[in-house]
Amino acid sequence: MTSSLELFRTVEGEIATLMADHRERREHWYHHEVVPWELGRNYVDEPWDESQCTLSPEVRTALHVNLLTEDNLPYYHARLATCFPADSPMANWGRLWTAEEGQHAIAMRSYLLVSRNCNPKELEDERMTVVERGWRTALEDPIDIFVYTSAQELATRISHRNAGAHADDETAFNLMKKIAADENHHFIFYKGVVTAMLKEDPSQVITSMWRTLADFEMPGTTIPRFVRRSIGMAKLGIYNLRIHADKVVSPLLREWQIDQLGGLTADAAEAQDNLMELPSKLIEAAELFEARMEKTERRSSRTSA
Ligand SMILES: [Fe+2]
Ligand SMILES: [Fe+2]
Fold it and tell me: 206 alpha carbon to ligand 1 midpoint, in Å?
């Protein structure tokens, strides 16, 4: 069996092609054309007050969490920059990807500040906390990185898109749609690399998939009150286990035709079985969560009645 790095080296030509395709396909956009600057007012003369917000508290939380996740870009860049040889096309991709990702936090923060849909002090204090905490990951294997980024970009696309859709505000919708479109282009790149690797060594890639997707975690877990906030986002349908199963894991398994791969090693065949069972396991966990939420809501409506 080839090492992960050797396998990565065999698909470098494909990586260069996928990057050229990405440049061709992605439409560049400018956040200054989307942010409603005409709403901007001086925070010193007119301090922030929650009554100025036009979005629901749940949607504001989702945008706040998604923005802080984007704010940790230096650590994501560092991970990509230190995992691949300096002479590989991934060095070029890492820089391009970082430049594109950079606009997401700038655009979301500008929107939230001019529209007064964030508590500006809390947002800045939490940005400091999150960036100081950094982001540590066990991801080191090059194959794991491509599997993780495929799932993470797709998940982020959905979370941004849903946050915009739930905002009930045309500007927020348009902004989050543009960011989600970028995430989709990133997703297409990363899953393309995985597809190329699968052709070379399906056994190695499929074991990486199981390793990476079994305990998949989004990179925002260091955000203060992350669990409470993500429960709110789950309840609202911005991102939850059911969405993760139906819109991320299942489409990836179909895209990579995991059920049809043959001639696998014993370990890889076991990983294949595990992967094919993963969506139903996630749905079972989603049902438990939903039942628990329903019970809590019933109890709180009884107490408030
Ligand atoms: Fe992003
Ligand atoms: Fe992205």
Answer: 26
Structure tokens at 206: 């499929």
What confidence tens digit (pLDDT) does each residue in 221-276 have? 999 999 999 999 999 999 999 999 999 999 999 999 999 999 999 999 999 999 99
Q: Where are the domains of the chain?
A: 4-300
Query: Can you point out the beta strands (E) in 180-254?
Result: none
Candidates 3.90.79.10, 1.10.620.20, 1.10.600.10, 3.30.565.10; CATH matching 4-300: 1.10.620.20
- Smallest-distance ligand from the CA of 153: 2
For residue 304, give both structure tokens: 């408030």
**CA dist., res. 236 & res. 290, Å (int):** 11
Residues 97 and 185: their CA atoms lie apart, in Å, by: 10
Q: What is the pLDDT of residues 151-162, one digit of tens each?
A: 999 999 999 999
For ligand 1, a single-atom ion, the residues with CB < 5 A are 101, 104
pTM of the entire structure?
0.95
Ligand 1 geometric centre to CA of 51 (Å):
29
**Alpha carbons 235 and 250: distance in angstroms, whole number:** 21
Residue 42 zone, left/alpha/beta (φ > 0; ψ -120 to 50; rest): beta
Is residue 203 a contact partner of residue 209, using CB atoms and an 8 Å limit? no
Give me the phi and psi of 24, to 5 degrees please: -65, -40
Burial class of residue 295, CB neighbours in 10 A (0-12, 13-18, 19+): exposed
| Block residue for tokens 């946050």 | 163
